[in-house]
Amino acid sequence: SSIEGQAFVRTRRGAVVTAAGLQVALIPATPYTKEIFDQQFMRPDVDPRLNEYRRVTTADTSGHFTFDQIPAGQYYLS
Fold it and tell me: How far apart are the C-alpha atoms of 68 and 66, rounded to whole Å?
């Protein structure tokens, strides 16, 4: 399977803009990752053990991203 989408961010002034050039991370939703996300307020970069499971891509100039060859399951996008 594949996962694709368009990422946006909110600026400090409240405007919504595309996440052009920013990293998008895909992390499998497991009991371990749920605990990490719950404890660290959606900041998976804090626990380096997650890097083994995390896939990262960079959003293009309009914020679009794609992850290919994804096994069936539930995931967090960050």
Answer: 6
